[in-house]
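Lab notebook, bench 4. Still working through the backlog of constructs that have no structural model yet. Next entry is a single chain of 328 residues. Request: give me the structure tokens for it.
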Amino acid sequence: MKRKLGPFQVSPIGLGCMNLSHAYGVPPAPEEAAGLLLRALELGVDFFDTAALYGFGANERLLGKVLAPHRSRFVLATKCGMHGVDGKRVIDGRPETIRASVEASLKHLQTEVIDLLYLHRRDFSVPIEDSVGAMAGLVEAGKVRTLGLSEVSAATLRRAHAVHPITALQTEYSLWTRNPEIAVLDACRELGVAFVAFSPVARGFLCAPMDVNAFDAKDIRRAMPRFQLDNYAANLRLFEAYRGVADEFGCTPAQLALAWLLAKGEDIVPIPGTTSVAHLEEDLGALQVSLSAAQVARLDALINQQTVVGTRYNAPTQTEIDTEEFPA
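Model written out:
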């Protein structure tokens, strides 16, 4: 039942830890976040994903404090190349910055080695070969075991893989974000690279209707076109039909979203995030949902790049992303 992630075997559903410290408004209290991490471990989750950016180090420190005593029980992934400077997000893929970032991450995470180190974003001002070369040096130094990339194109993956074997590529993938299907999934399979799907429940869209007006002022979804009022109203009609399918299949909408991803290939590992233990347990229930090829095709036709209204990022953010995109 485990899935292959380079030299590792991991649970089919991992845990994205970002929203315990970052991105969707006020994070949970530290004791609540700690309880969720430990409950995930108890339920068999053995793949945890964080980043230097999340909470500007707070997320890594949280994982270090809570999970360091259990370090041998899970695969630990973090990211470099994007971090906080004076309260602002900065993309910096220079070798010296990568090396300094990883030294800080090791301290925050209270570990001697990072299992999977991703380049969080490609820095267009630095050749990808230089960034990955610095990361490869950290493998040689014994501080990192394997390398990954986040939000990059198939062409960038191939260039990076020529410098050092890439274990995993992470990008957004769900029913409403199908960009990996353009070229990246094929490139991953050609090269033997695992695919890690973040935001697999579409930033909450595939869970339940939301009041977008009630989003916290710091919620990153406020800047995302699909959550703008008119677009969201149109997309909500898709959700109502989708929820009907989930009812028919005997699962929750979130479980259906994850089951769809799991059915897309055994090389795909979704990493949903949550601040709720109840939602964590619900997400893991997706492992009991098996979809036929016909059911997958039915979902493909219902929610896809042609039926969803709005791009996934606004124009300024999109300029930072090195991925194939469908025409707006």
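Notes after review: DSSP finds eleven helices and twelve strands in the chain. The two ends are 38 Å apart (CA to CA). Flag for follow-up if needed.
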